[in-house]
Automatic annotation (TrEMBL):
Keywords tagged on the record: FAD, Flavoprotein
Keyword Thylakoid among UniProt keywords: no
Protein name per UniProt: FAD/FMN-containing dehydrogenase
Entry similarity comment: Belongs to the FAD-binding oxidoreductase/transferase type 4 family.
Pfam families: FAD-oxidase_C, FAD_binding_4
InterPro entries reported in the protein's UniProt record: FAD-bd_oxidored_4_C, FAD-bd_PCMH, FAD-bd_PCMH-like_sf, FAD-bd_PCMH_sub1, FAD-bd_PCMH_sub2, FAD-linked_Oxase-like_C, FAD-oxidored/transferase_4, Oxid_FAD_bind_N
Alphabetical list of Gene3D superfamilies matching this protein: 3.30.465.10, 3.30.70.2190, 3.30.70.2740, Uridine Diphospho-n-acetylenolpyruvylglucosamine Reductase, domain 2, Vanillyl-alcohol Oxidase, Chain A, domain 4
Organism for this UniProt entry: Methylobacterium goesingense
Limits of the FAD-binding PCMH-type domain: 41-222
Domain of life: Bacteria
Length: 467
């Protein structure tokens, strides 16, 4: 693996196959591609390749493979684990999919959308909406995240409770392998049991096994009615009882069920100027349901009346309009921004079995108080699918590695995962080794070696670089 500047003859070949504007080598042009969104992992790319089609991606990969030069795929650059950033060696080529942004077709009857990897998620959502359909992947970065990166990281978001992770929505993929081989599996089939479902290897692989260049995604009918409610709850256990009651009353119309700590809403009020419309509470639930059938709002109103009467909720508001619903969601969506303004933090994207959430939160709080006094947990996330963002605001006396160990070790006690939806990238590589069984890591290495024997695809991400 090259650890020095890419050979000049390679850059010449890349420029020749990519055409005018397809290869960036000027330092100022490279700067936006050299550091992650959180600015934790600065790098130094040798060049940035910007292919306009799959054939050019294949040509770039074949040339880099022959020269032994590593390639780092990059989409919308919105990841939180440093998975799309080159190292500081100056010997890695960044491959940006931004120019491959076409929506090829939307099929409203077959409920599918085919698009290239550089298509912005929001653009794809809007194309589906124009046909009365819904692409249900929804996340904070949807205005800049690209479909290739969404697939490569198996992104989650607020709708996982109802529609599942991105993996559940991918019907077909086109992928370019490390040596430039193009594998076309763009089939819009709901049932295809002919051999191995190889596309699953690339979904969530963070660009370490191949580069997604196009995809066929599953759409769903767009709900005509939605109901969004914000409720104050006494504690996480009461929130779980509320979830169970919502499941019983509303079934699979529940699209989102978010748990938010009172401290998180206090940060939003202080640093984003947004205040909750309900009484101050230790914990808050933001819930949304959607259906094309009449009677949804009445069913939600009945549910809220019952949980308020039982004491599982102490206050609540049901949005009267789309504008009010957006205002409720703004409270949730501004938490990360408010946290950034509050000071340095250590982020944890973890999951535990849903019934274990209250006990996990209690245990993690006790462990932090004992092992890192003076820290401030900022807790929010997708309670309905077991994913909690357990972020910790720290002072100069605290080390992020120690905080990681405290939180991740607590997660492990409850049979959870150290990455629910953000991926491993380079941020959690060592922690993955600590918390995955050796047999699982060995299997992952065998898959990596089979598809990328030279270790040139996104080295150092997900798995440690080298043998």
């Amino acid at each position: 693996m090259s650890q020095t500047a890419a050979p000049a003859d390679l850059l010449g070949r890349l420029e020749s196959c990519l055409g005018r504007g397809g290869l960036l080598t000027n330092a100022d042009d490279l700067a936006p591609y050299a550091v992650d969104w959180r600015r934790l992992f600065p790098g130094r790319p040798a060049a940035v390749a910007r292919p306009a089609n799959t054939a050019q991606v294949a040509a770039v990969m074949a040339a880099c493979h022959a020269a032994g030069v590593p390639v780092v795929p990059q989409g919308g650059h919105t990841g939180l684990a440093g998975g799309a950033t080159p190292d500081a060696s100056g010997g890695q080529v960044v491959l940006s999919l931004a120019r491959m942004n076409a929506i090829r077709r939307v099929d409203p009857l077959g409920l599918t959308l085919e698009a290239e990897a550089g298509c912005i998620l929001k653009v794809a959502q809007d194309a589906a909406e124009a046909e009365g359909r819904l692409l249900p992947v929804s996340l904070a970065a949807e205005g800049s995240a690209m479909l290739g990166g969404v697939i490569a990281t198996n992104a989650g978001g607020i709708n996982v409770l109802r529609y599942g992770m991105t993996r559940n929505l991918v019907l077909g993929l086109e992928v370019v392998l490390a040596d430039g081989t193009v594998v076309d599996g763009l089939r819009a089939l709901r049932k295809d049991n002919a051999g191995y479902d190889w596309k699953q290897l690339f979904i969530g692989s963070e660009g370490t096994l191949g580069i997604v260049t196009a995809a066929i995604l599953r759409l769903v009918p767009r709900p005509r009615h939605t109901a969004t409610a914000l409720l104050a709850v006494p504690d996480p256990a009461a929130a779980l009882r509320l979830l169970r009651a919502a499941q019983d009353a509303l079934g699979d119309t529940i699209q989102a069920f978010e748990l938010i700590a009172g401290e998180s809403l206090a940060l939003v009020a202080e640093h984003a100027g947004l205040t909750s419309p309900i009484a101050e509470a230790g914990w808050t639930v933001l819930m949304e349901a959607g259906s094309s059938l009449e009677g949804l709002r009445e069913a939600v109103e009945t549910l809220l009346g019952e949980v308020l009467e039982r004491g599982d909720a102490t206050d609540g508001v049901l949005a009267e309009s789309g504008q009010q619903a957006a205002a409720l969601w703004a409270l949730r969506e501004h938490i990360t921004e408010a946290e950034a303004r509050a000071g340095k933090s250590v982020k944890h994207d973890v999951s535990v079995p849903i019934p274990a959430i209250p006990d996990f939160l209690a245990a993690a709080g006790e462990a932090l108080a004992a092992g890192a006094p003076g820290t401030r947990p900022n807790i929010f996330g997708h309670m309905g699918d077991g994913n909690i963002h357990y972020n910790v605001i720290i002072g100069p006396e605290h080390g992020s590695e120690a905080i990681n160990r405290i939180v991740h070790d607590t997660v492990a006690r409850f049979g959870g995962s150290i990455s629910a939806e953000h991926g491993i990238g380079q941020y959690r590589v060592d922690e993955l080794v600590r918390h995955r069984r050796p047999e699982e890591m060995a299997l992952a290495r065998r898959i990596k070696d089979a598809l990328d024997p030279q270790g040139l695809l996104n080295p150092g991400k997900v798995l440690r670089a080298g043998p």
